Amino acid sequence: MDESENSFSPAKRFRIGLHVLVSSMALLSIVVMANYLASRHYSRWDITREGRHHLTPLTSKILKSITNEIHVVVFFDRDKPVFQSIQNLLKEYRYQYPKMIVEAVDYYRDAGGAQRIRTQYQLNSEKDQDLVIFSSGSSVKKIYQRELADYDYSGILEGKTNVARPQNFKGEQAFTSAVVSVTDTRQSLALFLQGHGERDPSSEDEMGYSRFAELLQEKNIRVGTFQFGGTNSLPLDALLIIAGPRVALMPAEVEQIDEFLGKGGRLMALMDFQSVGKRTGLERLFSKWGLEVGDDRVRDPNYHLRQDDLFIVNFSGHPAVRSLVKASLYMILPRSVRKISGGMPSTDGLKVEEIAFTSESGEVAVAGRPGEPVSAPRRAGTTPVVMAVERGGVTGVKADRGSTRIVVAGDSVFLGNQTIEQLANREFANDAANWLLDRALLVGEIGPKALKEYRLTLTAAQLNTLRWTMMAGMPGVVVLMGLMVWVRRNA
């Protein structure tokens, strides 16, 4: 009895308490010091197989070169397949650029927050959802879900599903482009040629180009129209867009465009089936720059939904279409666009490249003279419908202007209001404009990253076993260990 009382004497209890207090304080001090050192000296690793959260050196370089505060709003339904990839990627941006403020608003679950965002950024309640908004000062850039991934449409074509599955995540390319767009005060210029039956950038009709014009404006590109006449001359720093001319240009107008290109101008020409068999005046100009637009209509019996539409599924590695390698364009009876037959013209430094093609089952229906019917389709194999032309080292032009650049497509309908949102049409419009204006260099080194699905298939018996293991087995082990400790201490 005396021995038991001595073992719990006040002096011994004090020593034990003091020892516990000192040990606790020492442990707390070690934890604090370890966290302090870890916050100042640490390394981070992306252990995913594809390195999907690792930013490219180009993005890191751009983030180090800016000082503006950037606000990012992820206006997304959290159940969307790409939402988590967006969140993870933006964490990497914030890590490298702390002045980026990120806010996630789920428009399904947060009605008040959704209304605030719609009012602040003037969003359309029906059309503008599932998008990421970058803003800095008065500059705003919207990136829609369709721009963030390449989608697999094979299930739709085979009639197995009506939902496209995301394949490749293009978030870094889109986000870095947005960062540059909202922090760069310089504004490019795009002019739509008018006066020859071209598409109207102010028209909201199905065949109008108002959505294409809005896309350019979202990219910090000022949009206007141009019509020859009087003392009007094409500004050398502009991108000239000729979309679906119906009436022939005058020789003097073609000469001015040729002079514009000869001084390092930029041109996007979009021809279509409505001008098959007609002379637009651009044929001679195209020939000089190493290409020709066929008086034909291109089809592909293996890649279409309706009689007159066509999926373009093959692309080169050219910067104007590099991001579309696993995507598709949706066109309406495009015309073929090829290198001229008989060799290249004698223009120094000219690079002419076919960049978008049909599959090997492509067919071509050739038209004769104006008024003659189109011939029956014939097998043509892989047929080009988009070409890119570049000539560098232009004499007499200041170095920051760069080279002459031209993109010619055999369809203008695919960038109209009704079809620009189909498949990857919008992405093509964006990438082609960026390349023509030298803006593709900002994202030229940033490629898409694969989105892979991992599925675990369990039988009913395996699922039942797993359920009882999680619900009873794991808690039971903890209870059993506790009983063993209690029994040992009371033995």
Short description:
The protein is an alpha+beta fold and about 500 residues long. It is about 30% helix and about 20% strand.
Could you characterize the architecture of this molecule?
32% of the residues lie in helices and 22% in strands. With 491 residues, it is α+β, with helices and mostly antiparallel strands. The strands form six sheets. An eight-stranded mixed beta sheet has the order 8-7-9-10-21-20-17-14, sandwiched between helices. The longest helix has 31 residues, at 10-40. The two termini are 20 Å apart. Residues 394-400 have low confidence and may be disordered.
| Gap from first CA to last CA | 20 Å
What would the CATH topology of the largest domain be?
A: Rossmann fold
The tally of structural domains comes to 4
CATH level-1 class of the largest domain: Alpha Beta
Number-wise, the strands total: 22
Descriptive key words:
491 residues; alpha+beta; Glutaredoxin; Rossmann fold; 4 domains
Write the layout of secondary structure elements.
Layout: H1 2-7, H2 10-40, H3 57-65, E1 70-75, H4 83-96, E2 100-105, H5 111-121, E3 131-136, E4 139-144, E5 149-152, H6 154-157, E6 165-169, H7 171-183, E7 188-193, H8 210-218, E8 221-226, E9 238-243, H9 251-262, E10 266-270, H10 283-288, E11 291-293, E12 296-299, E13 309-312, E14 314-315, E15 329-332, E16 337-339, E17 350-357, E18 363-366, E19 378-379, E20 384-391, E21 404-409, H11 425-436, E22 449-450, H12 460-489
Parallel strand pairs: 1-2, 7-8, 7-9, 9-10, 10-21
Antiparallel strand pairs: 1-3, 3-4, 5-6, 6-22, 11-16, 12-18, 13-15, 14-17, 17-20, 18-19, 20-21
